[in-house]
Design a protein that fits this description.
mainly alpha; 22 helices; 0% strand; CitT-rel
Length: 499
């Protein structure tokens, strides 16, 4: 005879097995798999690859650390600035470089010119001057979709020499305006309506940014880095700002004029007319009111600074000094304050990792690695009985399409520019031609993929263009740009005497 259990009796619950397991806090450091791969690349190269007798142990060790740095730039175990600092620390700990040698590039004037220029970008955004300029062009040219595209492109050209961050121009000025225009035309992201207007304007602006960045030396941070690395290899660029502009002007202007029209044909918007766009721009301009005192100061300061960049060599004033003077005026007149400069994280991040990459590249050259690599490649090309023209084409193509492995134009420059320029020089390619062509290529591959540059990531993140279209349009427009630069550039550079 069974008895019912007492109501007060509660059977013991089995203890779950997982209670005996140790709970670890979530990992917050470097991404472990990319970290392991990056370190392994350097270790394998250092200890498993035979060292050529022409190369010293110190140089070989620095090259292995540089390869670890490069792999980390691609795989991103840490943010790029943090990873560069870790690798720089490694060069000092292993006594590959002295502390002074490791940090020597942090006094480089070109790097500080880039940093100060980022502060100018902050001024354009803070005062609203960049928005005002873009809205004026929308008001003047925005009655049709293609006119709207040209208005946005032309406004970026006007702003670019004084705003050297293509990412800042994209995210701070043009993307908000494009979003506003698209919304007013009932064109929404991640929706079939994206093709009405938003997708076309996004792609037009993204692709055109490659050539607006090419037009002026100060239109993109990587341009200044290219010039500095070229001069470190003995390529003299006299009157930098004017020389860059003269060589880029004709092919860049043709590409800028062609880009919105070509995309209008191969990636057409379904909305052809935008009669409401000028009215929207007019309303926004009325909301902004008359041009403010800070905007006038910004305009005057940038005109003075750009004039000094153009005539600086004749006046004996370095570009960085002209930029410092401009920033000092903005600080003294209250357009910017020091907190604005301190909060410009991209500027300080650029200082950190540009300094590391430029320093490593310089030491690789000083220790003989870059000359050894370039001579090896040049000798291989010579063994095929190739003239410098053919070598130039092969090396430029390799430099361009290897960018599919990179998520940053400046990282690409820091990692490969010196090596490829040295290969050009060893192949007897005229130095100035090689240096400028590599610099122009660096801008042209900025719209190759959705990750190939900061501005490409910003525009893709808006959600108007699908990923297959990004890759398809990226390679199509890249090839069109290459053809224009090859044909027009070759003739123009011959006239200018670059070769």
């Amino acid at each position: 005879m069974s008895h019912a259990p007492s109501p007060s009796y509660i059977p013991p619950r089995p203890t779950p097995h997982h209670r005996f397991l140790l709970r670890l806090p979530p990992w917050k450091g470097a991404k472990l798999i990319p970290l392991a791969i990056s370190i392994s690349v350097g270790l394998i190269f250092r200890f498993a690859v035979p060292k050529p007798h022409q190369v010293s142990n110190k140089a070989w060790q620095l090259l292995s650390i540089f390869l670890t740095t490069l792999t980390g730039l691609i795989l991103a175990p840490l943010p790029i600035g943090a990873w560069a600092f870790v690798c720089l620390t490694l060069t000092v700990i292993t006594k590959t470089l002295t502390f002074a040698a490791a940090f020597s590039a942090f006094t480089n004037e070109v790097i500080w010119l880039i940093v100060v220029s980022f502060f100018f970008s902050r001024g354009f955004v803070k005062t609203g001057l960049g928005d005002r300029i873009a809205l004026y062009f929308v008001r003047w040219l925005g009655k049709s979709t293609i006119g709207l595209a040209y208005g946005l492109v032309l406004s970026e050209v006007l702003i670019s020499p004084a705003m050297p961050s293509t990412t800042a121009r994209a995210g701070g000025i043009f993307l908000p305006i494009i979003k506003s225009l698209s919304t007013s035309a009932d064109s929404r992201p991640k929706d079939e309506s994206a093709r009405k207007l938003g997708a076309y304007l996004i792609q037009s602006q993204c692709q055109a940014a490659s050539n607006s960045g090419n037009l002026f030396l100060t239109a993109a941070a990587q341009n200044l880095l290219c010039v500095k690395l070229a001069e470190a290899l003995g390529v003299k660029v006299s009157n930098r700002w004017v020389t860059w502009l003269k060589a880029a002007s004709l092919p860049a202007i043709i590409c800028l004029l062609a880009t919105p029209l070509i995309l209008y044909k191969i990636f057409p918007p379904t909305t052809k007319n935008t009669p409401d766009a000028p009215a929207m721009a007019k309303r926004k301009l009325e909301q902004m009111g008359t041009v403010k005192r800070d905007e006038w100061v910004m305009v005057g300061t940038m005109l003075v600074t750009v004039a000094l960049w153009i005539s600086g060599e004749a006046l004996g004033m370095a570009s960085v000094v002209a930029a410092m003077l401009g920033l000092s005026i903005l600080l003294l007149l209250g357009v910017l304050d020091w907190d604005d400069c301190l909060s410009e994280k991209s500027a300080w991040d650029t200082l950190a990792w540009f300094g590391v990459l430029v320093g490593m590249a310089g030491q690789l050259n000083a220790l003989g690695i870059v000359p050894w690599m370039s001579n090896s490649v040049a000798n291989s090309l010579k063994s095929l009985s190739l003239g410098w023209h053919t070598a130039f084409v092969i090396l430029q193509a390799a430099y361009f399409f290897i960018h599919y492995l990179f998520a940053s134009q400046t990282a690409h420059v820091g990692a490969l520019y010196s090596a490829f320029l040295a290969m050009h020089l060893a192949s007897k390619v005229p130095g100035l031609l090689a240096a400028l062509a590599l610099g122009y290529s660096t801008n042209l591959f900025g719209a190759l993929t959705h990750y190939s540059s900061g501005q490409a990531a910003v525009y893709y993140g808006a959600g108007y263009v699908e990923l297959p279209d990004v890759f398809k349009l990226g390679i199509v427009m890249a090839l069109i740009n290459i053809v224009i630069w090859a044909l027009v550039g070759a003739l123009w550079w011959k006239i200018l005497g670059l070769y």
